[in-house]
Amino acid sequence: MNDTLLVDSIASAISSSTAVLIAATGELLVEKTGVYNIALEGVMLVGALTGFLVDLWTGSWMVGLLAAGAAGALYALLYGVITILFRTDLIVVGVALILIAQGVTNTLGTSHVGQTTRSVIPLWNVPGLSNIPFIGPAIFRQSVVTYIAILLPLGAIFLYSRTRHGLNMRSIGENPETADTSGIPVIGWRLFYTALGGLFAGVGGAVITLGIVKDWVSNVTAGEGWIAFAVVFFSGWQPGWIIVGAYFFGALSVLGYVGQALGWPISSQFFTILPYIGTVLVMILRAWLQRRRGQVSWPAALGLPFYRG
Amino acid sequence: MSVEPARRVLSNYTPVTHARPPRLRWRIERRAQPLNLSLFRFGAVFIGIILSLAAAPLFTTASPRSLYDAMWSGTFGTATGLANVLTIAIPLLIAGLAASIPYRLQLWNVGIDGQIYIGAWAATGISYHLTSQRSFVIIPIMFLGAMIAGALWILIPALARVYLGVSEVIPTFLMNFVALGWLMYWATGPWYAPSAAGGVFAIAIPPQADLGNLNIGSLAVDWGILLAVSLPILFWAANRFTRWGYEVTMIGASEKAGRYAGMNVRRTLIAAMLSGGALGGLAGALNLMGSSYQLGPGVTNNTGFNGLIIAVLAGANELGVLVLGLVYAVLLSAGDAIQVVGASADMVFAVIGITLIFGTFGEAYARLHLVRTRAPEPSLAETGGTG
């Protein structure tokens, strides 16, 4: 493999993982409170279209990202209200909201297909580091959002291991009845974190349109929401592993293109399916190990509705 | 942790004479006796469909008249429209069954689209190897191969669920992407057929693998419709009148009760999931042999998801699956038809999603009610404020 191809593929693996990393961190925050937002793909799609349209209107990627975050938060809050407040089934409502997001974004976006964005998220050369041969162009010449995205899971580590609030949020996910008894507003925080996770996912969606694809395509997220969802399971609900998972998945998807460019005898589809097989195997392996140790890694109340009394 | 609340109690102590009157608050609570779940669910779905149809003109530039005309001729108005409804209904009904059989046991088969891919892939491969055979040999073998492939596709998630307690939702879903990648490898690689129209297609299956048409007057629909209509009725009867059905009902209500009654719970769970997978594979084969004839990612267009929705809305009742499957096939066919007047084909997915939300709200209304109660005295936490 020659150097420029290697540099380019590392750089594109990192940039294409950014959206997944942001969305997965948001999803982790939700799941820690015992709710999983299975509509992640739909939320990202809503964010992607909002970011694109607002950018067309204002010509500013930053406003686009903010609007996408707001739209994502609102859409996720809708999911939260339906599932958490009305105790409906998470999977059913998630599937419904994904279908609605697909239908609405494709209907509204039809006239914009192929149109390029007015602005794109700029690249930032890290002073000094970006001039290191090989490593510089591969890692330190990324869009500004990429650097922020890595900080998000680190922030989550701090939240859950160093703050009282993080401990309370974990208790909601582990045992909402106990949390309620000790006075934590379970429903309120679950709704808040669902909206916050939606904000992250919305921004992640807009990163795809404004930073990676740079124009509008129908179903532009192309399953990245599901990858983000899978990354959280892959990580075993540990924020640090979210970073590993997101970049690992991104690297595998780029390997397919590299293989094609170099004429490897392995089909590019092989690399696209690896992350999914990997996640299933990791889940099974983790369950098997935990069964032997007699503990579980997921929040114990994940996916269960909360009733008071 | 143990000291702090005690201190708060003391600091928040107020003499009884100053106590505020209890606050009246709206709360969502469970009904003591739930209303008729399926009635409210079905009713809400039909209200959702009617409202969506009424609102449809707002989302297109076409005139309402031409929109509704297109919908009518694409469904009941013409023989081709009705044939399209039934063609859509065939894999959809089977996909609905593929979801409803595990769902009776509270198991989610979210991987039906993947099973459709893999079933269609297996059927295609078999048909390539049996090109010299006659129809009555090749068709049953293709069906069987597709069902085995679909069942194998769900085997690992099923075993992981039953023996390790890994939720089947994520693994079955992720296997969809694996199936799609596998299909794309074959359709773009060894079986690739160059196509002028664009899109990914494999070489067409041999003509004797075509299911052929059942002609009723001017209506021509392939033979698969008989299977698609009779299987739900068959499964309904099996669930109602056989020992298997009794076990499924009992274990579905409570796994523990089933175990205490001496039933083989694990075997039943695995059998139900594998049946779901096999039916998903069958849906793929039926689509391939009845309408697409070429393997490609188009063998399912959210068919699996739509099947899951139908099963959930029908409350896993197979006759409900039959009714709702036909209703949603009409909707999907109308969605195809309105493209003629320039409306987006994806609008129909939004409509299906909205009806599903209506359905869940209908069920929520039957289970929950809004009550205005006197809240208990503010708890420690509401005054003390943690979190």
Describe the fold and architecture:
The complex is a heterodimer of chains A (309) and B (387). Chain A is an all-alpha fold and 309 residues long. Chain A has one domain. Chain A contains twelve helices and two strands. A two-stranded antiparallel ribbon of chain A has the order 1-2. Chain B is mostly helical and 387 residues long. Chain B has a domain at 83-235 and 265-345. Helices cover 65% and strands 6% of the residues of chain B. Chain B is built from 15 helices and four strands. Chain B has helices spanning 3-11, 37-55, 64-73, 79-103, 112-129, 135-164, 169-188, 224-241, 243-253, 255-260, 265-292, 303-313, 318-337, 347-367, 380-384, and strands spanning 24-30, 213-216, 219-222, 368-374. In chain B, strands 1-4 form a two-stranded antiparallel sheet. Chain B has a two-stranded antiparallel sheet with strand order 2-3. In chain B, α2 packs antiparallel against α14 (347-367), α5 (112-129) crosses α11 and α8 (224-241) runs antiparallel to α13. The longest helix of chain B is centred in the middle third of the chain and has 30 residues, at 135-164. The two termini of chain B are 13 Å apart. In chain B, 48% of the residues are buried. At the A-B interface, α4, α7, α10 and α12 of A face α6, α7, α12, α14 and α15 of B.
SSE arrangement:
The complex is a heterodimer of chains A (309) and B (387).
Chain A: H1 3-32, H2 40-58, H3 61-85, H4 90-109, E1 123-125, H5 135-139, E2 141-143, H6 144-162, H7 164-174, H8 176-181, H9 186-213, H10 224-235, H11 239-262, H12 268-293
Antiparallel strand pairs in A: 1-2
Chain B: H1 3-11, E1 24-30, H2 37-55, H3 64-73, H4 79-103, H5 112-129, H6 135-164, H7 169-188, E2 213-216, E3 219-222, H8 224-241, H9 243-253, H10 255-260, H11 265-292, H12 303-313, H13 318-337, H14 347-367, E4 368-374, H15 380-384
Antiparallel strand pairs in B: 1-4, 2-3
Helix pairs in contact in B: 2-14, 3-13, 4-8, 4-11, 4-12, 4-13, 5-6, 5-7, 5-11, 5-12, 6-11, 8-9, 8-13, 12-13, 13-14
